[in-house]
């Protein structure tokens, strides 16, 4: 049986060991391709670039609902390391300004979008990196924006989001502990960002915040995205009107929320760069409020500020 290899492109996007970059930089482009080329690839064996056990499970879960024969192989490196000194250097800043000017002048013909489509070399397809668009320019190509919105609705249907078992209007996110597999031989060889979930940062005392919101009559519950498969995450976020969380990759799940929904994001001293979540929220017409930290990596959300944001309208009440 003829094989087709879907290789990630580590040179034109963020680290694919990260859920945020994996979803935008590999998962969504890949499922769009296989759904729009069904007749062309139906009789072929699809080989997907293995990143790490958790990321691979996301794509495997979706592929179970298809008839494609497939497997996973490690086809190359998954990350690109951009030295901090280069990012902050005068040369780096000038280059980014020039890229922004090029976008202003050339629009969708700017050089970064040269890699918008899949590139084929023999039996190998190089997967486009849609995450790069937000990182560099703060927005998607109009056609990419339309495509992702269409795919989001299709995935919500695939996940049967209307029958969610997680129907709370307000979700307070709890980061997952590092999975046991990170300590295994296979896990050690896989690509991960340094530190996983609570090992890196977390929202302190999220259970306390849920109790405070329940006491006020809000329909709130605790949700740990890392403990759930993709379908369950889509179901939970599509049912929520408000999500409260520490800044982190889990917030890529805001994609599944309805326009006008609210994200309250607690900042962390772990970051010094601009929050990518702001750009995604703007792209998909979501309200995003940022709670400042006080020099802590894992701060507790300021309850008075949370209450202020969600009490502006009765829409969030149970």
Descriptive report:
The protein is of the alpha/beta class and 318 residues long. The chain contains twelve helices and ten strands. It folds into two domains: 3-80 and 111-139, no CATH class; 161-316, Rossmann fold, CATH 3.40.50. Helix 11 (276-283) links the parallel strand 9 and strand 10 (287-291). Helix 1 (19-36) packs parallel to helix 3.
Q: What is the molecular shape?
A: globular
User: CATH topology of the largest domain, anyone?
Assistant: Rossmann fold
Query: What is the count of helical runs?
Result: 12
Number of domains: 2
Poorly predicted segments: none
**What is the CA-atom radius of gyration, in angstroms?**
20 Å
CATH architecture of the largest domain: 3-Layer(aba) Sandwich
Classify the beta-strand content into a percent band: 5-15%
**Largest β-sheet summary:** 5 strands, mixed
Percent of residues in helices comes to 25-40%
H/E order of the elements?
EHHEHEHHEEHHEHHEHEEHEH
Average pLDDT works out at: 86
């Amino acid at each position: 049986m003829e094989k087709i290899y879907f290789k990630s492109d580590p040179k034109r996007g963020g680290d694919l060991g990260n859920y945020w970059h994996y979803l935008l930089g590999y998962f969504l482009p890949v499922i769009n391709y296989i759904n729009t080329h069904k007749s062309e690839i139906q009789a072929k064996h699809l080989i997907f670039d293995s990143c790490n056990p958790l990321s691979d499970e996301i794509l495997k879960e979706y592929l179970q609902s298809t008839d494609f024969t497939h497997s996973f192989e490690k086809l190359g490196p998954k990350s690109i390391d951009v030295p901090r000194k280069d990012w902050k250097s005068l040369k780096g800043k000038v280059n980014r300004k020039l890229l922004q000017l090029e976008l202003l002048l050339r629009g969708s013909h700017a050089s970064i979008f040269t890699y918008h489509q899949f590139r084929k070399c023999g039996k190998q397809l190089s997967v486009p990196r849609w995450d790069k668009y937000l990182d560099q320019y703060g927005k998607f190509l109009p056609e990419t924006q339309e495509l992702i919105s269409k795919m989001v609705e299709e995935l919500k249907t695939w996940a049967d989001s209307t029958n969610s078992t997680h129907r709370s209007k307000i979700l307070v996110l709890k980061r997952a502990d590092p999975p046991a597999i990170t300590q295994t031989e296979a896990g050690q060889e896989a690509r991960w960002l340094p530190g996983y979930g609570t090992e890196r940062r977390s929202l302190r005392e999220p259970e306390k915040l849920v109790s405070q919101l329940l006491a006020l009559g809000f329909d709130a519950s605790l949700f740990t995205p890392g403990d759930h498969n993709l379908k369950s995450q889509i179901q939970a976020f599509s049912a929520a009107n408000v999500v409260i969380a520490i800044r982190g990759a889990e917030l890529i799940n805001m994609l599944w929320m309805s326009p006008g929904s609210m994200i309250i994001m607690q900042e962390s001293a772990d970051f010094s760069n601009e929050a990518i979540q702001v750009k995604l929220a703007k792209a998909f017409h979501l309200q995003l409020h940022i709670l400042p930290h006080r020099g802590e990596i894992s701060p507790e959300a300021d309850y008075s500020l949370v209450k202020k944001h969600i009490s502006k309208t009765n829409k969030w009440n149970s």
